[in-house]
Amino acid sequence: GGVSDMDPPYVKKKSRHIEVGDVVLIRRDQPFPADMLLLESALKDGTCFVSTATLDGESSLKRRVSILAMEGVTRDVLRALRGTVTVEQPHPSIDDLEGRALVRDEPQTPIGPYNLLLRGTILRNTDHVHGLVIYAGFDTKIALNMRDPPSKLGALERRLNKLILLIFALLVFFILLCSGLAFQNQSQSGAAQWYMGSDNQQRSPSAVFGQSIGTFFILMSTFIPVSLFVTLEFIRIFLAWFMSVDRRTTSKHGTPLVVRSFNLNETLGGITHILTDKTGTLTENEMVYAGCYVNSDIFAPGEKLWKISEPSERRNGELFIQSLCLCSSVYPETLSDGESPLGDARQGRVVYSGQSPDEVALVQAASDMGFAMLRRETNNLIVDDFGVRKRYLLLAEVEFTSERKRMSVVFRMPDGSIRLISKGADEVMMPLIQFQSDHKLQTQKAIDQFAAKGLRTLVFGTREITPAEYKAWAREYEAAKISIGGRDKLMSEVGQRIEVQLEFLACSAVEDRLQDEVPETIEFLRDCGIKFWVLTGDKRQTAESIGYSTGLLTHGMSLVHVSTQDPSRMARLLSGVLQDEKAIERSNRHQEVAGSASQRISIIIDGKSLSVAIAHCRSLFLAVATGCDTLICCRVTPAQKAEVVGLVKTVRNSTTLAIGDGGNDVSMIQEAHVGVGILGKEGSQASRAADYSIGEFRILRRLLSVHGRYAEVRTSAMMNMSFYKNFVFAFQQFLYQFHDFFSGQTIHHQWFITCFNLIITLLPPFALGLFERDVSEGSINRFPRLYGLVRKTNLFGFRSFFEYCAVYGLWHALVAFWSSRWVLGSTITQMNGQDNGYAVFSVAVTSLVVIIVLAKFVLVSRWITSFSVFSICLGMVALFLVPLLASALGSHDLRGVQYHLYSTPAFWFTVVLAMVVAFIPDFVIMLWRHQGSHNISHDVRMYEKRNSSRDSEA
């Protein structure tokens, strides 16, 4: 709970009783119970620091600013405070807030996310704060974000739903057929069946038909594998647990794999396309300053940026270093000062924190070059300017957005001048800068050189503005800041009016190193038959360089650059590429026969061209993209990423996986069939929105090739056998009706019907679903093609349903019924001369069904474990114990049946005969698959057996 109301003493309230308008006191390390605006802080500059790790996973503290533009706000001042606060309606975006505050006679103050203390965040490094509640209860942003993620169905589950409909259709068919035959039987011989009683003789055929529908529905309902759904959910939970506890799915930083969508485990085994972000996904997102272009030259880290003899070069160099620090949202923290994070640099080491790793790297570089940020106050920046402490007054800030791709600040410099500093992506900054002579061409060349090395670049521009110009612009900008509704757009439009006629300062370069084993992981997954598409906001040269460093691009492949906004030219370009792809495909087929290396083609397209291609040449672009080896989309927005994923999903038999680490990747992660989030330095938005969360890109290899593939193999085997065992068991009821005049008499005793799925065959499906393996993990790593084989084979579907039910199931059911019928049904087989009755025949049929079904489980298992053996043994023991248990609990019709049946030699002869006859089709089909067609899995298993035998001999 919190403490609210300002008249002392404070009134304690539980969080659920806090209302809008309350002023709440929160102390250090306490969570905020509602969404509040900061009024007063224990820190002198009216700021505080909060931890948002519970919301976005970011470990860095966030700085929040008081809405009261006055110094020395005390509790007495707060008690006497009168004013009006206007904010927008509640919405779930945690990074957006628009409003304004009018306090006393002060001018209106804009309210933004920098004033907001969100519910669930925690106060850090600040003794206490007072906040004004603006959203409470279900209106808070964390509550509005508590909604179910988009529902996703795996391919296996979609096929399962279709097969369940087929099973229902078969059930209806059997019910109507048996009811119709019961109708015919009653019409032809119902009156002659005097032994059935007078009630039966008097029933009309129509009444018999209606009653038979209900009877046969109950009798044959075991066709529907109800236990399958329960088994499937438990197996998915266990397989997810196997993934989580696997040490090889834990990152080097100790981040474990987290499974949030159990129902997609099998889908991981059939991925055809991986669409990946670059920064933080393929790279470490640990930015390191790598140099700059200034004074018409490129400088490496540590090099002096000017010559002593050139004053103009010194001015440009110093101004660039200052811009690295001033044009940022980074704040310093002094580690040795326990009371306040904003201590003097001389008291301890200063570290920099910020939401952008690029900015932190640049500010640290400025500090290393002599311009160190010491303290950040409300509108002041205290810096060590080449050994001299100076104060820079922040007059205005036009924030960075993904649409603007730049940020600008206006400072009053120590000498009294007003200076605008802007930085951003080169494609938006270059048109705003006035270059001299051929300097623009040289600058672009330098940018391209940085990008060719895979470095991230920012262009810096500046100009000095007059007080009159600033005053006129500031008036419009302040009005835009206090507007409600479309504030961001209006602020952007006003900001653009001052970002003109800039003077070029420099271009900075930051290196983002590749994560461990990224090239090896990509190579392996491509060998598995998976295509890679890279979707990044970086410039083309940077994306291309990363493509080469990761192995997605090679110097031997044909690389096509698509860059045009003309629809007709786009169509001609894509048509030409499509013809090239077809020619290369034909050439590759001939080269495979000749044994020579094949050719490949890859495409790089920018965001603007991508919009044109999708809008005007959608089908053509899709054909070209799916036919190429690698597609790299650069300069794309989050919306375009999701659009591309949706485009790939329209391709037949495609299964997409999107992987990213930032908030801008959430849309594509949610759009893909499977979303994987990397918990990295950009927070946990992608991780929380994803179906699977990992710590490093390399873990994707094991997640797909081992866990995903095994999940597909195991779940498919389990579902095939679940359909099979229920079909064999239930089909006996249909066969028996031809021997009892379709009266609805059951062939299985009620105890066996109850215990068949519940006890007798409970564990064998779990043994398949949890531990089945067609090949070992080592073979999967040695032969990546095994991954694609699972997808192409389609282990579970209509084909496998037909095989397991219409072939194995039907034949095994016929063998179990007719062998029992012929040998035991009408002959005197007991040693005392008694004839076998219905009870003996019933138990015989059920026993044969169970024995054949359990034997089939052993036959399909390619990885026998102790749990597999235990499950089969338990099923056999349960088969013999069920009649004893039924007799003990009062079921007299089973008493003594086991003794008479199992002591009869004819029964055991029937078991042997039925086993031999029943599995003839199984062995024929198995032999045909292993010898009559090329089977990679079989070849690998033979390879494993040969190696294991050699090892044992050695």
Automatic annotation (TrEMBL):
Domain P-type ATPase C-terminal intervals: 688-930
Names of the cofactor(s): Mg(2+)
EC number: 7.6.2.1
Alphabetical list of SUPFAM superfamilies matching this protein: Calcium ATPase, transduction domain A, Calcium ATPase, transmembrane domain M, HAD-like, Metal cation-transporting ATPase, ATP-binding domain N
Subcellular location: Membrane
Entry's Gene Ontology BP terms: phospholipid translocation
Catalytic activity: ATP + H2O + phospholipidSide 1 = ADP + phosphate + phospholipidSide 2
Protein's name according to its UniProt entry: Phospholipid-transporting ATPase
